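Re: the 324-residue chain
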Amino acid sequence: MKLIVIGSGNWGTTLAMLFAQKNEVYLWTIDQTEADEINKTRESKFLPGMKLPENIIVEKKFTRKIADEDIVITVIPSRYIDDLADEMIANGADRCTVLNASKGVKHSTLKTVGETLLDKMPNIVFANLSGPTIARELAEGLPAKAILACEDVGTLFRLQQILENDLLKFEYSRDVKGIELAASLKGLIAIAVGIADGLGFKTNAFGLIMTYGVHEFVTVMKFLGVDYKTAYSIAGIGDLITTCISENSRNRRFGKLLAQGYSREEALNEVGMVVEGVSMAKTIQKFSKFNLSIPLISCITRIIFEDVEDVRQEMLDTINSISG
């Protein structure tokens, strides 16, 4: 059995370091040049000062064959999941176990990462990893707990035996789609808290935004027919709070930059990493035709994509219009 992490960014590298406590891990990059550089320095540009353990082998993706018994951990921007599925099929890797740690929903179909992968590779065993897990904290040796979600209980047991260690513990769920949706939606609320921070608001406003955000999670999840109780789990409200209060949250930082006058593209460039909340905002715009009551999320999408003259007033009007 091989443990393969596809995606050498901030989160992917952190997971490789965590899982290397008990396993040899293959960390796959886009190209050989990046792999050679990380192997030479034993350091990722996303985690400066953190040395990679020697039992992490960094190599270009699909350098070696993926076997049916292998565990592939996908940690790439969700918009590339379709392309990855095609590559896996072309390389005969369509029967392994895939543990998704990416966040997002396919814009054109409103399908989660799991649904997208299973459409193309119905014979894989799919599981999802989510929860209040800021990469930098874990890389620095601080403990956390996440949720492993899979419809197959045997797979949950197998993943727990292989992946759990002193730093990262797990809760378990069979509500795969609900866990994925909660992980995708929380970035929008973190952007809202970032905007509030950039406008000079403090904890009073942050508390309101997070509370109303959870309410809107429930609205969206009920509409999509998944268990809304997942919104109150550590994959929902737990991950939401962590992302909203962390200074290391790229979604929060992006929102703060918007409030400080940066354009959307300028803010994305300044963050320098993928901000999945922006992709989800684009997707959530499609829900407007269904007349869902999600005023806070709608406000954030307007601020991100439209020329809102007075962001401060837009935020205040939205927060004050919400009741319960």
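The domain at 178-321 is CATH 1.10.1040.10 (N-(1-d-carboxylethyl)-l-norvaline Dehydrogenase; domain 2).
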